[in-house]
Amino acid sequence: MTFYVESETDRKLPFDVEEVAGQVIAAALAYEKCPYEVSVNVLLTDNEGIHELNRQHRGIDAPTDVLSFPNVDYENPADFSAIEDHIEDYFDPESGELCLGDIVISVDKVYGQSEEYGHPVKREYAFLVAHSMLHLLGYDHMEPAEAEVMEQKQEEILDRLCITRNGHETDRTAPY
User: Fold this and answer.
1) For a tag site, which of 23, 75, 128, 146 has the least CB within 10 Å?
2) DSSP helix/strand/coil, 175
3) 136, 70 Cβ separation under 8 angstroms
């Protein structure tokens, strides 16, 4: 797995953002039984930066917490059966990795939502990475049933990493 975390904001998070992103990305891939080595890009920005991206790409003139830019079109979420039919579109010819897509997170929203929901900053960041990974794996939440599936999967991924709402992490690591 290759992932890149780039920051275009001066605002820092109080933990190793690369380590946490890597853990969540790996957990999401294992949870969905992805059979490929993958690459994912993560961009940390501020409300101004994500506002502009949201306006350009979604036509929504407001900041948001996370944007997902999937590279893979799935017939069904996390259904990898037809991926190899599109090797030239989905796989990096040099590394052979499946290029899942890009995640953009507003650090300002991470802090704001952490305070609003009363859980640790690390938990909010990990939640947004998990949420976006599910989008990169073909999930959506436009319908209530879809939203329920995504919410359950997000919680299970974070539970496996012992990243909880109350901030009490344990040394236990669950098998994926």
Assistant:
1) 75
2) coil
3) yes
DSSP string, 18-87: HHHHHHHHHHHHHHTT--S-EEEEEEEE-HHHHHHHHHHHH---S--SEEEEE----SSTT--TTGGGGH
CA distances from 78 to 5, 28, 58, 64, 94 (A): 23, 10, 23, 25, 24
Q: What is the CA radius of gyration of the chain?
A: 16
Is residue 82 within 8 Å of 37, Cβ to Cβ? no
71-87 confidence digits (pLDDT tens): 999 999 999 999 988 98
Q: What is the pLDDT of residues 128-138, one digit of tens each?
A: 999 999 999 99
DSSP state, 15?
S
